[in-house]
Predict the structure.
Amino acid sequence: MSLRTRMFAVTYDRMMRKTEAAGLTDRRETLLAGASGDVIEIGGGTGANLAYYPSTIRSLTVTEPDPSMVRRLEEHARSTRPGTTVLRAPAEDLPFDDASFDTAVSTLVLCGVDDQPRALRELRRVVRPGGRLVFVEHVRADDPKLARLQDRMHRLNVRVGHGCHCNRPTLDTIRSAGFEVTQLHRDTIPYGPPWIRPLIVGVAQRSAGEVAATEPLSASHVA
């Protein structure tokens, strides 16, 4: 575990404070209100989502691969959401049986996993048929000029942004993994340089037979 990794875990909440206050917290809270049943969150970090899960969920399991983050996540869970199961595990290799969860959660995670397609296949595997994936993720910009800027800044962003690949076609990867996107809102993250700001906020379903028709998620639903 490098000094850089430990420092990132120590300073993460402080670095994100302005962005959270400017609207990211509202996005988390509104999206997570729809979580139900047995819930798994990948890449839980320091536990930014913990306070926003509804009391009606049956269970909450949060995974995080970084040991420095795990320690802070465990502390946060004890004080904010007692009963949460915290496990050190990468999103690409989840230690759960098939069809173990009703809801999967990923917020600002899929830009940083080592193998995005594999991570999404794992999520689909552990979600029950008819279950849902809810997400807030950095994505490649629709605007070609901004997408080219993302490509130019990619190497620097990965280095200084703790592995953030902000130019990934994440929405396409979600669909390719076997999820049907049922709600979607294209958004921007408050603050930060322009190449990291494009976001998608939405819900996708693992098919349980007939797939529900796609419906837009309006801006009023996520902010």
User: Anything to note?
Assistant: The chain has one domain: 3-221. DSSP finds five helices and eight strands in the chain.
